[in-house]
């Protein structure tokens, strides 16, 4: 077997005719550049990635300690705010504040009824709540459906407003900003914001708003999505922070950071969850992850000076925001996952002169994985699959992060995540009775296939000529890239 594989990675080109000459030239070039150029650059990249891995490791250890401390001690930071006493005072004195509930939507045919119905079902005095549906739909038929749904709830006595714009400037941030300019918003002190696929429980406001009433330093009370976070804002904090801005694709993070720099505080209510929908297709998930990775990197670029020169926060808080929140979690995490584990480690297999410390190549990622598993014990049986899939997605996240940092093309690309609502169940059931249709243009992903091919070649090379067992990981990771590249989908 070993005799069948060339000992040089450049020799994979065909050997017939002109291809043979090209292969020989390529192999010669590789030999000439290997020692003076390739090896030093690759070794330097290993050291850089090793440093980033240590940074990520320390951040994960810190987060694991915090999470475990909270779980073991059963201590909730927000209990100091006296929620029960505030709720009792509200009920006894009947002094409920006026709450604005905003629902931004865009061509949400499958979920508009669910989100509007959930918002209209919130338990709060009907004369002290305003439901604001911000419809940016471009499909006239869907627009009519949403408007009719609002009229149906209005006929039941719900104070619901149907608002549209003549354009989609600023996308979601623009819609929220325009919504706050309506005259009736002046009587409101707080605003709850739900995406079109959010379905809050009826007692959601009772479990969030009281935190804000007697704690004027609080800007936001966050609840937990089934997969993420949602919350209620103090309107004064939104205005003090400069309002909604559409300069990045993470308008909520932008507002939260600016409010934090103004001295406002936040509370996260971890045991309050809001039902929402995951992306229904791999393509939709890729677009969502591009937005969520590109946006923070671009926001970091835009706000770095603002954070450094902020006068209302301490140096410790500035360091936390710049280093921990942005640099490690939003930039390093994406870059090191892809470049180190999917590019540099496989390449080191082809260049045995490179010194690859097992501490950073094996033990640190293994420890990080264990720490993640401890924090989410219910999903431990999916750990291996999750790691492989996350590494596939890291390719798109790393690309999006670089785009955000360089402010290149697609930096402000906004593709709304398609939502299926209850229709998703119907589609899943119909697929059982219908033959699946394969659309090569939609289901074939070139980048994933190319990465899978490279990893597979490195694995074969490692089996035949390597001195370690990296091929075990390389074969598994190549398989993950191939699965996603050759048409696997969520739906």
TrEMBL record:
**Per the database record, which ranges form the Glycosyltransferase 2-like domain?**
232-347
* Pfam families for this protein: Glyco_trans_2_3
Which cellular component, as a GO term, is one annotated location? Golgi membrane
Please list the GO terms describing molecular function. Answer: mannan synthase activity
Membrane topology is: Multi-pass membrane protein
Keyword rRNA-binding among UniProt keywords: no
Record protein name field: Mannan synthase 1
């Amino acid at each position: 077997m070993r005799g069948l594989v060339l000992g040089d990675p450049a020799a994979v080109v065909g050997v017939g005719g002109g291809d043979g000459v090209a292969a020989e030239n390529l192999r010669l070039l590789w030999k000439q550049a290997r020692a003076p150029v390739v090896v030093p650059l690759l070794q330097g990249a290993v050291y850089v990635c090793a440093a980033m891995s240590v940074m990520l490791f320390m951040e994960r250890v810190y987060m694991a300690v915090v999470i475990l401390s909270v779980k073991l001690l059963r201590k909730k930071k927000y209990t100091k705010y006296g929620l029960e006493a505030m709720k009792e005072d509200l009920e006894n004195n009947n002094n409920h504040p006026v709450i604005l509930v905003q629902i931004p939507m865009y061509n949400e045919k499958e979920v508009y009824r669910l989100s509007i119905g959930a918002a209209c079902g919130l338990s709060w005095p009907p004369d002290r709540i305003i439901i604001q549906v911000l419809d940016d739909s471009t499909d006239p038929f869907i627009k009519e459906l949403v408007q009719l749904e609002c009229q149906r709830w209005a006929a039941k006595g719900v104070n619901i407003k149907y608002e549209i714009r003549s354009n989609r400037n600023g996308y979601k941030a623009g819609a929220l900003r325009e919504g706050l300019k309506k005259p009736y918003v002046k009587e409101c002190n707080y605003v709850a914001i739900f995406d079109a696929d959010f379905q809050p429980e009826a007692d959601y406001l009772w479990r969030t708003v009281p935190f804000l009433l007697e704690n004027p330093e609080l800007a936001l009370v966050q609840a937990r999505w089934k997969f993420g976070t949602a919350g209620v804002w103090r309107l004064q904090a939104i205005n003090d922070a400069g309002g909604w801005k559409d300069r990045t694709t993470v308008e909520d993070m932008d507002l939260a950071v600016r409010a934090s720099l103004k001295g406002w505080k936040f509370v996260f209510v971890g045991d309050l969850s809001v039902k929402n929908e995951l992306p229904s297709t791999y393509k939709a998930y890729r677009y969502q992850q591009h937005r969520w990775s590109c946006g923070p990197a671009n926001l970091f670029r835009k706000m770095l000076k603002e954070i450094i020169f902020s006068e209302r926060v301490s140096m410790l808080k500035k360091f936390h925001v710049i280093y921990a929140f942005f640099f490690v979690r939003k930039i390093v995490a994406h870059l090191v996952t892809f470049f180190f584990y999917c590019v540099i480690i496989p390449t080191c297999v082809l260049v045995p002169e490179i010194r690859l410390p097992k501490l950073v190549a094996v033990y640190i990622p293994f420890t990080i994985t264990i720490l993640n598993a401890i924090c989410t014990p219910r999903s431990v049986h999916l750990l291996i699959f999750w790691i492989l899939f996350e590494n596939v997605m890291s390719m798109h996240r790393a690309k999006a992060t670089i785009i955000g940092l360089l402010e290149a093309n697609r930096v402000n690309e906004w593709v709304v995540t398609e939502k299926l609502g209850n229709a998703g169940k119907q589609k899943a059931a119909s697929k059982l009775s219908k033959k699946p249709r394969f659309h090569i243009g939609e289901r074939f992903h070139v980048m994933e296939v190319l990465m899978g091919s490279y990893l597979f070649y490195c694995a074969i090379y490692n089996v035949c000529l390597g001195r370690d067992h990296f091929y075990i990981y390389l074969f598994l990771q190549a398989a993950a890239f191939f699965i996603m590249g050759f048409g696997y989908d969520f739906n």
